[in-house]
Amino acid sequence: MYEGLPKVEPRRPIQFTSKPSLRIEHRYTLVQNILHDEYVLESYLNFLETVHTTKANIDIVGTNFRNALEIASQYPTPEVKSLLFNTWYQVFLRSGSKQDTFKIIQLKNELLLNKDRFIHFMMNEREYNSYEKLILPLLSSENSSIEKSYADILAQTMRLDTDSVGGLIFDRERMILYLKKSSVSLPDKRRFLDIFARKGLLHSSDIDDSYYIIRSFFDLLRFVGDEHLDFTTPKYNVYKTSLQLIAELPSGIEIEEHVTKLKQIIESLYDSSRYRNFLTSTMSALIIPSLTLHYWEHKYRLHRLLEGESDVLNYKDLKYGMNALRKQKKYEDVLKLYKNFPTLHHDDQIEILLQVSEEFKDWKLLQQQFEEMYGRGQLPFVNHYAIVMNGIASIGAREQIEKLYHQLMKRKIKPTPAIFAALINSNVFHDDEEKATYWFNQYQQNVQDEQNNASLAYLYSLLFKLKFKSTNVNGALSLFTSALDIQDRTGSQLIDSDLVAQLIKYLNDNYALRDIEHIFKLAKERDMDSKEVYIALTQAYIRFEEFERAEWAVHEGQSVSDVPFRGSDIYTLQLRNYRHWYKASLDPNMKDFVHEKAWQIVYLAEKHEMSRKYLAGLYSELIRFHIRSDFDKALEVLDEVKKQKILEEGHFIPFLSHYSKLDNFEGYHQIMDSYREMASLRLKITTLTYYYLIQSLIHFDKIRGERSSFKLLSSIFELNGLTIDETDKPSASESNFKNEAPNLCRIVCRFVLSDVKNLYMSNSQLVNHFLDQLKVKLGSNLPINLRIAIYQEMSRLYVSQGNLALAERLIDSGLNDIEKILRTYVENHPFSQKELIVIPFGLQKPYRDLVKFKFICIGHNSEGPANYLTVYNNSNMNNVRLTGEQYRIIIKNILLLPNEELIPIVLDICEKYLVRGSMIERNLHKHLQYMYKLILTYASRHDNHEFLSKSFDIFSRFYDADINVLRNRWPGGDIRAFINRKLDEFNHTWHRRGWTLEKVMNSPIKFFNPEQSIYSSNKLDSGLANRILKEVKRYCRGNKMRAFELMDDFPDTMDFLLYDQISRFRYRLFRKEIDKIISPPDTKENLKDRAMRTFEALSIAKDDPNIR
């Protein structure tokens, strides 16, 4: 056993309290079992010591080591360190004394695949002592074939470790010797210093360690000639991450205190001019604009303080300050800052000004600034042309772009890839494939000698934009295949990983899972499986509810990231996967397992142990994770986002959805307040926010008799290039109009259903005019999500207006369209057999909605019950799961048909979709009966007269409990401990309310109320169950063979029907007794009201000795 493990306090104890069900073979399960149980860990290490290696054992050990390493990168606890270190020790050092068999060599090779990552882990944890004992002997051994890697060089040179009090130590002299080596290139030396700074700062244990690393980093720069600290040119990009980490605030330190500390460190090593250079370099590297502005303001104050020195502020500082304001969308402030420093103006800043005009969508200002450059005699550079041309390409201004291109050629300026990108993009806007291809060919001819692979791939991706506008998947695949073939034959880089990611997203939108798998296989074979590809793949797997495959893709994406297992964008998807997995899972153990995995990511986010880039998306997902169960916690996350100044629309959307579901004055008022806050912060707002906002305005319009919602609708139309009035001419729409269109449908439908009057036309005219504009802008080839949105919203509208004939025609078209997509999806599914395929929620939900509207039409038209059977057959054929209410409607109508041979279909529906909920509810009532008898036994044996006097015959009769019989049945032992153990199990399975024996004794009515039920629509109500049982008896007519066949084919359903017959009699007697105490209302009583009346009646019975 390896004894070199230092005692380290865990950052957070891991408790794997549950295991997934056996049908899910999750890759972490065995590792978690080992870590959770000391006995299992000891057994596992003994198993390694025996060296009885088989192919299966090699796979197990290799997988466990790899998974433990992944867990350790997030939670480096003593337990997981022990597992890693002892595994390595047993395989390489202990078994090394024995003769290496072929199998042992295989086992070693399996672990060596993760050697470098293991070394990096030891460096991060400052475990050089462990490295010396575990890795170094293998490299120094004469018989070893293990080669020294770059990770070994880093470990042996830095020697990161801790002293006796836990402080950071490293070998400065060895590092200096390495940096002075002439055999090491300058880029490699800079890379070495960057790694040192990153590892030190990302894994520092306290503030003193952080500043020690920062000072050492600055000090060591002198040995590579970089003590000037001016890192604003491309050759110094290697230092960007280090500069970001240095500039970011350590926990508990104010910005001014931190900047002052940095100033003291630098000026203790170099002269003050180096500190100014550092500030400029920092601004060039920072991603977060608010932090950039802090450093800008600090340097500006320094400029004011040293007014006599002219070189404190420079044109680069102004550029970075302007760019930070641009990122915050403070466009007017950008122009103001630029005008305030005329002596610092430079051509580089013109690019920012042009970008401001482009992002502000102020095309006139864009062209005006461009033309002003001519007026000042400053002829625009080619990059200025590119910004302007690409800006107006997004509105399809082909003629203007070609005019600028000819102007460029007349000035004999060589066009860049960005120029051709604008030319191609303007034709993509107009769906002109021929012209777009022409400009692509022109690019290849004009810059053939100096083609940049990345640029070529980007321009080729523009051709795919045309294909991605269509739902013709085969067209996009054909273009991809032909391009890949040319790439393989010629070596020209036409396809890159970014394009592969875009293609996977496109196929995802079109539900082409088989094609996604094929494209990914082709990409992986050509080493194009980048992080972006795995992100796109994960998104697809989540949408198709392939959660385990999504988990695999997440792991692969983290592995190929620049800094493995630190990427916020990947963690965002992983948390989303867990959130959807949890909702979709029916297995309680799996739910617990997934929930715990999700909390591990939440913990990492709270500890800020991941990259800041893409952090905004992760916080958005965190809000979604918390908002259902802990609204206050979701608000805390929003406050943290505000504090970090990375607010986006996505952080508000979950709250807007929550407030709209309240459907009351307070909720709609909160929506208004949230919108005002978003507008004041100048956040980019999409139609999704406006969808919630118009609901709010409609609510207030109805109260106040106003038309604010119509004014908002007019503004939304105008923003999206649409018109309310048929006589007005529509304007150009944004390039993402297709993405906004589904929510526009929902907004229009919501407004029309509200009956708020508009000023121009009838609501039916408004709808028709809106749909006509969609056809003009998007053509007849509408994307799937938009077609589905139109079917849903227009069907809802026509049904609400009573236009059922038109509604039914549209519903049938919608169902046929979705069924066509479903047939292709099921037939081409690459993983599962047909009966096991889960239809994605994005297709199930609209199908159910259309079925709901279809049933309204069938019921109103008095069409025969056979129509309901047809709907069921179609849904069943296409693997669509309807709602429990819809299945009950179908069953009721099938039972009206004279054909008794349909009874097996009814039972099949129950067995597949309804009886599970009923059986769960039956088990709940059986548990309550068992607990009632158990606690009654306890009360009688302990002479708890208070409880016995409170208990009453109503409960005892319902639960069939006789206190005289129960008193003598307890076999012996600690009944109190036994009850508490059973209550713990009950809490975990049913309530999670923390019931204890004391709580039950104090609130027996609340705990034992027979009206308790599960919140699910997927169950049989007692009335329908009785009706089905009567038809089953008629179907069998005393034929026992028929009855046995039904029990074999539908065991749970038949079991429940027979149980329900007995239970219903007992329950009917209970209801009669409750009705005697409190009479039922004259109107129909819902389940919630009935449960409340039962509770009140039992409370009366408890206090009234005359009621027994």
Automatic annotation (TrEMBL):
Organism of this sequence: Hyphopichia burtonii NRRL Y-1933
Molecular function GO terms recorded: mRNA binding
GO biological process: mitochondrion organization; RNA processing
Protein name: Mitochondrial group I intron splicing factor CCM1
GO (cellular component) term, any one: mitochondrion
